Structure formats: C-alpha cells, structure tokens
Amino acid sequence: MPSANSNKVLLDQLLSLHPKKIDLSLDRIKILLQKLNNPQDKLKNVINCVGTKGKGSTCAFLKSILEQHGKTVNMYVSPHLQRFNERILLKDKEISDEFLNEVLKQTMETIQKHQLSLTFFEATTTATYLAFQKQPADYTILECGLGGRLDTTAVINNPIAQIITPISYDHMEFLGNTLEKITTEKCGILKQDTQIIIAKQSSSVLKQIDKETENNPSPRFIFGEDFQVSKENGRFIYQDDQSLFDLDLPNLPGDHQLINAGTAIAAAQKILKKLDAKKINQALKNTKHRARLEKITSGKLLEYINPNNQLYLDGAHNEAAAEAVHKFLETLKGKKIYMILGMLNTKDAKVFLKHFSSTITALKAIAIPNQDNSQDPKILAKIANEFGIKANPSQGITEALHEIANEDPNAIIIITGSLYLMGEVLNLN
Fold first, then answer.
1. CATH code for position 157
2. Of 262, 271, 343, 345, most Cβ neighbours within 10 A?
3. What pLDDT band is residue 9 in, cutting at 50, 70 and 90?
4. Which of 329, 324, 406, 317 is nearest to 360 (CA)?
C-alpha cells in the first residue's frame, strides 16, 4: 500500500521537473490537462477564491456553511503546514495517502510520456483536478495560489462564483509594486457569466476592480454596498438586501475574521439563494483554520512554558496580516506580550514589524528550520530594535519558548512570521 514516504518521493520528483520554483504561465498546465482529457472541465459548481489575505479562512467558512446546508464540498488550498495531504480536501477528509499516490503517479507518468516541463504547483494542481474528477462533490472550492491571471486555478472556464478577498501588498516581485498592478493581476482570473463577491477593500483597490470589471457583465456583490457585517454587544451581525442574521461570533478569533465570515455568507447566499440562520451559526462555530491566531491548549509545546503563559500561532507574513495580528493583540490587555519571529528573506521584515512597536514587550528572533532562505535572526532582531522593540536572537523554537517562560511566567506568547514556521512548530507539538 502506498505510504506518505512513497508520496514524498513522487512530490520530490515533481519538484525537480522545472528549474524555477515559481514561473507563472498557463501554457504548460493547459498542455498537461489536455493530455489528461481536461479533468478541470468536468468539475461542477466551482468557486474560485482570489486575494492577498483571508483566502484560507474565507474558504474554510464557506465550506462549513455549504456543508451545514447539506452539500458536499471538495476544496483545494495551499500551502500545507505539516502534510501535503492538507491541500486536497475530499468532502470532510484530507486525501488519503493511497489516493494521493494514484493521482500523483498518473500526473507524473503523463508528464514523462509527453516530455513536459512543469512547476511543482502546476503538477500538483493537475493531480488535484484528477482527484476531484474521480471523487466529485456538489461543490468545489479552489483557493488561488499566487496572483490570479496566471494562477493554476485560472484554467477553470465556468466557475459559478468568484470571491475576491482583501487585496494588499505581497509577492511584489511577481505581481507588481503597486496596489493597482497587484489588483490587475488578481482580477485576471475573473470570468464572465459568474457571480463576483468582493470583500472589504481599500478605495484604491475597489477603484481598480471597477476598472478591471467594467466590461464584465457578471453581477458583483460588494462589501459595504450590497452586504455589511458588524459586531454588536458580542454578537456578529450580517445584513444584505435579502437577510439579516444575528449570529454568535465566529470560532476563529480576530475582528478580521468577521469580514472573512461575512464574505463567505455573502457567497453562500448567492450560491444557495436561501440560507438558514441556525445552520450558518453552527457552521461558524465548526470552522477551523490551523495557525490563524490559534491558541495552543495541549501538546508538547506547553512543556516549555509555564501554566500561566498563553501560546498563540499565526502564519502572518505580510503587512495586511501583521495589522490583523496587531489588532488582535491590542485586545489582550493587562499582560505582557512576547513574539517569537521567523521570516523568509523574501518578505519585508521592516514593513511587518512596524505594526508591533506598541503591542509587544519583547521579541525572540529565530531561523525557520529546514528553510535555506530563512532571514538571519540577527538581522530580524536588529530591525525590531530599530522600532523600539527589545529583541535578541534565539537558537530555536523551544529555546525561545523556554527563555520567555523564564523571563515572564505570565506572558502571552505569539509565534509568527511564516506559514513554513507554523508547520515546524506544529510538528514539535
């Protein structure tokens, strides 16, 4: 029986097929998909989700809402934290090692037979389409990986809905160095004859979306115009021209999750036409999304801290996500907050850290294990010091936890800066 190890061999082979880790194009994947009889065209009720932040949470909320209303859902997300299987959700379960092996092997054999050269993401997205074709669901949710126009999920020709989550600065080396350019790339995935649900955006982004969609007759459902969310007396209020829902706060913490949950409700409203408030409420309670302001309440990591310490994980790695984490930390009044930070050297640590000068007491900078392009902890500590944050390098995750616990047995601790770091942290737990 195929194992996780045999899948790793196949995944490593796919990783070696193309010299560039990121090389945005649709030509290569379209050829491969054609050789496999275009499995992506056989998927029904596809929902695309594109944006900079909130994609994963919005998709998780939407999946939960659809399921509570009796629908089955397949979902594709990236990156994974611990196991590649996390990327491919078949109804309510991660893809099995055996089935993953089957679709990876079919993809690899086709690539080799026709002597094709594809990136890892192109090959694994193709394997995902095969899996979804072989084990179909009522709905298919596809989270866009990078950009939009040239993302592997842009090969879907007839999505029933497309969601644009908040757009901000990230991956500027590929998407452009202005919000207008980034928005143009994101909007490149939008199709006609679909429904476009637009989450909360800055005025400049919304203006650019208007420009990019002015010749697209697809109806738009816009946050702040067509649907609104608010928090009132500890309740979550969603309203549009059809409904008013008075709900419990979502299971995922942080006010930014109200926007994500509201966007998911808006999308579900357009997809299903009629929603049940009790089912929405249950869906928001059931939604889980690892390493998004996740509080660690069990596991080996707690052995390195004191009982009164609180430990949170968040994979924030860009400015918009940093701002969301900062706002959450502001709500944790009365206790000192320590940050353990590891970042890739492709991310802007200055832009990230400037948000935390008033919220965190001290910072431990670490290298991300098993990442050659991890930022030097000494450099991270130096940048933090420039913003008035007391910071110093630490040898690793557990060492940093131990140091903080000794310094303040009552402190709140947050580990952040990279989804790759989150995977390593969760592996330790």
1. 3.40.1190.10
2. 343
3. confident
4. 329
Question: Which contacts (CB < 8 Å, 24+ apart) does range 6-11 have?
Answer: 6/97, 6/101, 7/84, 7/97, 7/100, 7/101, 7/104, 10/101, 10/104, 10/105, 10/108, 11/84, 11/104, 11/120, 11/124
Phi and psi angles of residue 139, each rounded to the nearest 5 degrees, phi first:
-135, 150
* 212 and 99 fall within a common domain: yes
Residue-wise pLDDT for 260-307, tens only, equals: 999 999 999 999 999 999 999 999 999 999 999 999 999 999 999 999
Q: Is the pTM of this model over 0.90?
A: yes
Q: In the listed set 286, 306, 338, which residue is the last one of a domain according to the structure?
A: 286
Q: Is the dihedral of CA 65, 68, 73, 78 positive or negative?
A: positive
In the numeric block, which tokens belong to residue 42? 């056989």
Sign of the dihedral defined by the CA atoms of residues 299, 303, 308, 311, in that order: negative
Distance between CA atoms of 221 and 214, rounded to whole angstroms?
Answer: 14
Instruction: Name the residue range of residue 119's domain.
Output: 4-286
Average the pLDDT over 157-182 and give the result.
91
User: At 22, is the pLDDT very low, low, confident or very high (cuts 50, 70, 90)?
Assistant: low
Q: Which of 323, 319, 357, 324 is nearest to 339 (CA)?
A: 357
**Structure tokens given for 158:** 């007839």
Mean predicted confidence (pLDDT) in 367-377: 95
pLDDT of residue 6: 76
Count how many residues are written for the chain.
429
d(CA 427, CA 429): 5
Tell whether 117 and 260 lie within a shared domain. Answer: yes
The pair of three-digit structure tokens given for residue 196, joined into one six-digit string: 């476009």
Tokens of 415: 């580990």
The tally of domains found in the chain comes to 2
> Rounded CA gap, 90 and 94, in Å?
6
- Which SS3 state, helix, strand or coil, does residue 325 take? helix
220-230 pLDDT, tens per residue? Answer: 999 999 999 99
**Together in a domain, 264 and 381:** no
Domain boundary at 286, 309, 327, which?
286
Distance of alpha carbon 172 from alpha carbon 203, whole angstroms: 20
CATH code of the domain containing 350: 3.90.190.20
Peptide bond into 217 cis (omega under 30): no
Which residue in the block uniquely carries the two structure tokens 């940050």?
Answer: 339
